[in-house]
Amino acid sequence: MGKRLSKIVTRTGDAGETGLATGARLAKTDPRIAAIGEVDELNSHLGVLIEMGLPSPLPEILREVQNDLFDVGGELSMPGLAPDQALIRDVALERLEADFERINDTLPPLTEFVLPGGTPAAAQAHVVRAVCRRVERALWSVPDPAMNPLLPRYLNRLSDLMFAVARQLARIDGGSEVMWRHSRKKKN
Q1: What PANTHER family does the annotation carry (predicted)?
Q2: Is pTM beyond 0.85 here?
């Protein structure tokens, strides 16, 4: 890593601006900076999930996703990046889709909507899924027509993967998913 992070406390953000990897400075309220923060939060929630003692191969799959998310944040911090310098490429989406299919093929068909829960790990996977959707929306709000079009697609695929992961984790040790009960009696 060299000396890229030789000084953490810089005080350069105390006036409400922050720096991009390009050296440009933006308001901390800029949609690009907000999106970078959302990606960081998503990665943090994913880290919590990974540390919950998941069965193999989930930790390996999700650690790869964490690295991808760091790349997403990196791309966001480098506006104007040439397409051939993109950090997120088709291979990342293909990997997510293959992981989704591998997990989803082990699950029974859905017959009802699924509520977050089942196990602590399944509930955390649903948190990751929900935050992932927010990150996807944040990416669409970044006013950059040159932004890598794979970034929001990656987040879309990741939320699908996290839904399958949550469903799988709810079944660990004989557990089950929490299903929405649409026919419950309504209270007046």
Answers
A1: CORRINOID ADENOSYLTRANSFERASE (PTHR12213), CORRINOID ADENOSYLTRANSFERASE MMAB (PTHR12213:SF0)
A2: yes
